Amino acid sequence: MKNTLYNQLLKYRNNIYPFHMPGHKLGKKIKFRNMAKIDVTEVKGTDNLHNPCGIIEKAQEKAAKTFGADKTYFLVNGSTGGIISAISSICEEKDQILIARNSHKSVYNAILINNLEPIYIYPQILNKNGLIGGISPDDLEQKIKENSMIKLVVITSPTYEGFISDIRKISDIVHKYNKILMVDEAHGSHFKFNDYFPKTSLELGVDIVIQSAHKTLPSLTQSAMLHIKSDKIDSRKLQNALSIFQTSSPSYILMTSLDDCRDMIDTKGSKLFARYVHNLKDCRYKLKTQLTNLELIDQEVIGNKYIFDMDCSKIVIDCTETDITGTRLDEILRNKYNIQVELSGINHIIAMTSICDGKSGFRKLVKALVEIDSKLRKNHIINNKYDIIYNTQTCYNPKEASTKNKYKIQLENAAGRISGDFVIPFPPGIPLIIPGEVITTENINLINEYTDIGIEIMGLDDKKNKTINIIDEV
Length: 474
Description:
Elements: H1 5-15, E1 17-19, H2 55-67, E2 71-75, H3 78-90, E3 96-100, H4 105-114, E4 117-121, H5 137-146, E5 150-156, E6 163-164, H6 167-176, E7 180-184, E8 208-211, H7 213-216, E9 224-228, H8 235-245, H9 252-290, E10 295-296, E11 309-310, E12 314-318, H10 326-337, E13 339-341, E14 343-344, E15 348-352, H11 359-373, H12 398-402, E16 406-410, E17 424-426, H13 441-452, E18 456-458, E19 467-471
C-alpha cells in the first residue's frame, strides 16, 4: 500500500503549497469529497451528456448564462476534447485552417486527424526575455487575404504567461472576410467575474471559445467547457463530434464539478473574487517593489509586441537579468520552501493563482521569492529564446507526415532532415517541431539546452533525448 499512487499523492498534498493548476488548490472549496457516491452512469434520472435533455441540459444552460454564451457544452476530456471536436465539426478534409504557431498540441492533432492544410501566423516575441507576445491583427488580415479559402481561424489568448491579443480587432477582421474565429481561452475561464481581469473572448465577438475551468477555477482536472456565441456553428455537427472525441462513459463527477463550480460563482462569486483580487494585488505590489534582481512581469508589457492586455492572476517571474535559470528557481522554491509552481523555463517561472489562494499562500510566495532574490546577482547570461521557431520549412502537412516511413537517427545528425514526430517541451505543450517540418540546428541546440536544465521533452525517441524519428525521403 505504501507505494500506491494514492499514497504518493497524499504525501505530495501534505508537503507542498500548489501555485499550479487545478484551481481548487488540492481540494479547497470542493464540497463533494466522497466522490464514489456520485460516480454513476446514464440511467433514468441522470441524463446523457451525448444527448442531454434533462438535468445535464439544464446544467449546461445555467453555465451558458453564467459565462455569457448562447450555448455551452460540458467537456470531460479537458479543453483538448473540445478543441478537436470544434475543429472537426467545422472543417472538412483538405480545408485550410489559419492557426497561431503557438497553438496547443490538440490543435495540431485536429489538423492531423482531419487532414487539414495549416497556415501559420507567428506571435510576436518579447525582445528582453523571449516570451511569447500577441498576434498582430494586421499580419492576420494579410494571411487571410493571401489564402482566401481559409475556413477557420484559431488563436490562443491568453498565452500561458497571461498575455492577451487584441481579440476585438481580430474578431472584426475575421468576420469581415466571413470566416469563423475560435479562441483557445483555456487559461481564461475566470475573466468574467471581476473587472481586474481582461474581457472574455465571448464578450469580444468570438464565435467559439474553449475554457479549461479546472485551470483557474475550483473545478476538477479534465473539466472544461466549450462555448458558442454565433449562428455560424452547426450545433448538430458539434454535438456529434463531441460524442466521437469524448468518452462514451462521461464522468458524472467531472460534470458535477463543473455545475458546482458554476453554482459557487453564481451564489458567492462576487465576494470570493473581491477577496482574491485584493490579496492578489497586494502580492503583486510587494513583488514589484521588493524584488531587485528577479522581476515581476507586470502591465508595462501591454502595448508591446501586440499584447493588448494581460491576466494578472499569473505571477510571472523573469530571471533574464540574473545568474539563475527558471528551472533552478523552481527547484529552490520546491526543495527549500515547499512551493510548487506551474511552469519553469529557461528565463522564467509561472505561479498560477485562483480564488482558492488566501493571504497565507500569497505571503508564503512573496517571502520565498524575496529571500531568494536577496542572494542573486544581476548577470544577463541567458539568450533570448523560446520554443517557437520562425521561418519553419514545411515539406508535408501533419497527416501526410504520419503516413510516411520513419527511422531513428541521432539528434545531433538531424539538421536538415524532416521530422516524423511532434517534439514538444512540456509544459506548456506547444510543439517546437511538427511532423513534416525540417529540423534546424536551432531546434537541436534548443532541445539540448532544455534537456540540460531539466525541461521535459515529449516526442523524442529515447529517454535521454538523444534520438529522433525522421521521415524516409527515399
